[in-house]
Amino acid sequence: MAHDAPLSPLAPKTFPDMPAIEGVRFASGEAGVRYRGRTDVMMALLDKGTTVAGVFTKSRCPSAPVDWCRSKLKSGKARALLVNSGNANAFTGKVGADAVKLAAKIAARAAGVKEHEIFMASTGVIGEPLDASKFDAVLDALAADARGEAWLDAARAIMTTDTFPKVATATADIGGSQVRISGIAKGAGMIAPDMATMLSFVFTDAPISAPALQSMLSKSVQGSFNAITVDSDTSTSDTLLLFATGAAAARGAPRIAAANDRRLASFKRALEAVLLDLAHQVVRDGEGARKFVGVEVTGADSAKAAKRIALSIANSPLVKTAVAGEDANWGRVVMAVGKAGERAERDKLAIWFGDVRVAHKGLRDPNYDEAAASAVMKRPEIDIRVDLGLGAGAAKVWTCDLTKEYVAINGDYRS
Amino acid sequence: MAHDAPLSPLAPKTFPDMPAIEGVRFASGEAGVRYRGRTDVMMALLDKGTTVAGVFTKSRCPSAPVDWCRSKLKSGKARALLVNSGNANAFTGKVGADAVKLAAKIAARAAGVKEHEIFMASTGVIGEPLDASKFDAVLDALAADARGEAWLDAARAIMTTDTFPKVATATADIGGSQVRISGIAKGAGMIAPDMATMLSFVFTDAPISAPALQSMLSKSVQGSFNAITVDSDTSTSDTLLLFATGAAAARGAPRIAAANDRRLASFKRALEAVLLDLAHQVVRDGEGARKFVGVEVTGADSAKAAKRIALSIANSPLVKTAVAGEDANWGRVVMAVGKAGERAERDKLAIWFGDVRVAHKGLRDPNYDEAAASAVMKRPEIDIRVDLGLGAGAAKVWTCDLTKEYVAINGDYRS
Fold this sequence. Notes:
Two copies of one chain form a homodimer. The first copy, chain A, is an alpha+beta fold. Chain A is built from eleven helices and 16 strands. Chain A has helices at 64-72, 93-111, 139-145, 151-157, 210-220, 265-284, 303-314, 317-324, 330-339, 370-377, 404-411; strands at residues 24-29, 41-46, 51-56, 80-87, 118-125, 166-174, 177-186, 199-204, 228-229, 239-244, 292-300, 350-353, 356-360, 363-364, 381-387, 393-400. The first copy, chain A, starts with 23 loop residues before the first strand and ends with a helix.
């Protein structure tokens, strides 16, 4: 059962204008998978010629829809996306695989496409059989009702403990033609993406080949969805799919075959911006979150070492509870640097909360000002920066604080 | 500031009888390091001939006392142990190293021994300079007052957020002579020992060489202190020291030089029992803990893989909040198995809560009984067992639940 949490105080104040992307139409409805009185199924219809790329959880126990998407991704083509909330169809064995097949059959019939052109994702409780026959009653109506502008409704239908729908959009230039990239995401808990996030779906009208899409997506995810953590728990269902309808070709956009095509420079920047925007929204809606925390590590031996240290800080329950308590407890940052397993020299370490340097060369900053540090901690958005003073490796990740509400939400999510 | 938490509901009902160990005397007092109205310094005086072994945090930012102990351990000899609570003397740079030297000088004078025969540990806040001159006023009196039976007072003086003192004892037989092993520990938070725990000190009258002690200690710690976690945060100060006074030699116990001496069989078992007892008490006093949780993994590819999976489960905030909520949410156990990074086959996995099998061969157990599983979750002590069905690798670790009290305690520990 979804916990009835109030809107996150870190929610965006407004939603961006989300115009339709040519070749993509959405519909959402109530299939009654688990929730009552809210939408729980979303379908996106994709025009012929749509290419697709995807990244998925590295969990050794992935959900049935993740298995399905991985096998269907080889063709690089997609005609529809079906997503339900309320049940993750994970750890459901053969029953789960059968449910995915039945769902694909129902969706293919409703959309008038082939089963292998259907992509799927499910989110919600793990280990409960998913009754895919519930889709039978709603998908035909959804397919008939699909509209290009229904982004927010689509984002709402895939929410679980999320308190707000997550959308983002950007434009880019390819060979003098404007293309658009827009996406949706859901998050909230079990967020420590190792390859993607819980669920995110991004669409563009750019005419880009599946291999080029895949290359850009795999690269862009490192600094966005793979750089956030709510609770260090990696989901069985993480799925990020990027669909390109190619509709912009009719307006003169050149067809792009390879990721190293120079005409993709603007597109790559826009894709990274959309993914980072969605990833940040996932953190801002982290279960119980009251603070949005950036953790930047510089001066490490390598970028990989910097990221490992940054994640050690961002995943530390003691750092996260200190942030919740608005306590500039940099000793816990030292602890998290120390446990990360990467080289660190105590006497070269410097630590900042916001613009206040609290530690320098192995001890408390001689100019440390408790009042200034406390003022930083009272802000809703806090940057923690650590300089190791060793090399040029740098990384930034984002997390939220750990509050009593996180415990409350997760102490009674299922029951 | 120590959080004024009520006694852990998982505290032992009684303390064991802790007779003196010949060659060891304790005293504790108030040095006023940080706390008021409670003891915060403990000294153990050790007779001539005492050997010593130690294991320490793997943190890359260890405390100044850890640096000191590591360097002094080479001699294998000890004459006194000085421990303070309230300040960890960690991340204090040269000032911290100087404080350790001054403390050693004061302790050596009080105990009438050499400075390099002093071992030290500090626990409390990180990053604050420790004023070692405060020991000057109290250590002489402590040395004069030391008694062999003062185990509980010694254990109390090293507490921080602990709600009860931790002691354990056992006897063993060496070559027909009875020897005793007794120890104390402190824990509570920042508990994910990578080499030892926060602080634990174990004493025996057995006449055993330092290299043999070190070998046994390094081995025994793997299944005890290195198999517990409260919050996945590894301390900068983890220190476990084992002292052997050798006093039992006067009663006929043979002097043991090597760890592979067959006459050590009983001693090894007793040492493991004492370490495991103390480690369990640390978990039972985990910050905010209401449940004591054993996590056993069997059927893994190797013992190392089993332990990594067990720790992934034991450190998962979602598993720990589910336990706090008395929710038999085995889907989160699947998630934690999946994210551990070790081989797992969904369709071979079985999961138990207590004696209730909840999952079997990749899906919910056909005989799953929600009422029976819920009854298990209401107990104060819960065993979670996972069988991977792959190999013979097995491991067991222990943890506690994650409660709102953990967040409360750590949201205002320092301020």
